[in-house]
Structure formats: structure tokens, C-alpha cells
Amino acid sequence: MHYSDGEEARLGDTVSIAGMHRGRVVACLDRSEYSSAFPADEWAYLAIGILVDTGFGGLVHYSQADDEQILLIVRDGTPQGMAD
Predict the structure, then answer these.
(1) CA distance 46 to 40
(2) How confident is the model over 12-57, as pLDDT tens digits?
(3) Which residues pair with 75 in a beta bridge?
(4) Domain boundaries along the sequence of the chain
(5) What global pTM score does this model have?
């Protein structure tokens, strides 16, 4: 899955959702990447998209970025636009 700005979603990303919420990607179903807290044997059945642990609604499954405006804020501790 790609975020609204075209960046590819990855495990551990911190994202902005609808410009007012934040969350952390805990599973990338398309890439078969899962955090230890959200293992594949429990979540792979969703098949596509990402799982985001949010402050506003707990765990949310997004099958595509068109569902909400989702933008990358930080990738693995590196703010977007600062990794080069």
C-alpha cells in the first residue's frame, strides 16, 4: 500500500491520519510485515493494506489510502524528508 502522498507504507512508520490524528503502522499486509504484538497468524487474513495503532480508535485496518488521507511523518525514527 502507498500513502496519500505516494510513499510506500512500511512497518514502524508513524503516520498522520486526516491531518489531525497520529498512529503507528504495526502491520503491512501487502509486504507481509508484522510486529510481534500483531503477528501474521492473527492478521494475515485481511490480505491487503495496513494496520495502524491509533490514539483515537485503537487498531484500525486501512485497505487503501483513499479511505482517509494518510501521510508519512516518521519512518523508523527518521522524520520524512530528512533521510538522505
Answers:
(1) 10
(2) 999 999 889 999 999 999 999 999 999 999 999 999 999 999 988 8
(3) 78
(4) 14-75
(5) 0.86
